[in-house]
Amino acid sequence: MTIYTRTGDQGQTSVIGGRVYKDDERVEAYGTIDELNSFVGLAGSCADQAKFADLKEDLQQIQQELFDCGSDLAFAKVDERRFKVTPDMAERLESWIDRYEAENPVIEKFILPGGTELASLLHVCRTVCRRAERQAVTLSRKAEVNWEAVKYLNRLSDFFFAAARTANARQQTPDVEYIRSGKVFRN
Prior knowledge:
Elements: E1 12-15, E2 18-21, H1 25-46, H2 49-73, H3 87-101, H4 117-140, H5 147-170
Antiparallel strand pairs: 1-2
Helix pairs in contact: 1-2, 1-4, 2-5, 3-5, 4-5
């Protein structure tokens, strides 16, 4: 099997049901999801098995679901019967967020992304996820999409925020508050 096909040499690529230019909004959206998936894999590989077995398992599940999101956004012509992202996936993320947040110290102000290496990588995941979500919304204004995939990305960025804070908390590394922040979080 060869990895190269030469079918994209003229600046187009295949999506489910057709071909589009490589800078098409659809390709930008699922390409950013692919980028996010790579960062999630990196974060998982940096997570110590003893301290973060639960997080490593969650991240691997998320990687599977990111493929589902990308697939759902890759349809040239929407076929709802083939969508993979369902409402229960975002709901499950909410339960994971609640579980991690229970470990985190209370915050009232914005925090700087950083701390431990793992927390920093999870913050990178959060920001790339936000970009993927924005691109999916842009796509939705021009084409029909599975809105459950957009909702999943929205919740996923919240998950990465909570998980990054837990990564710091489990390693006794405090979050650093943004010094000019007002109180923005309610307890």
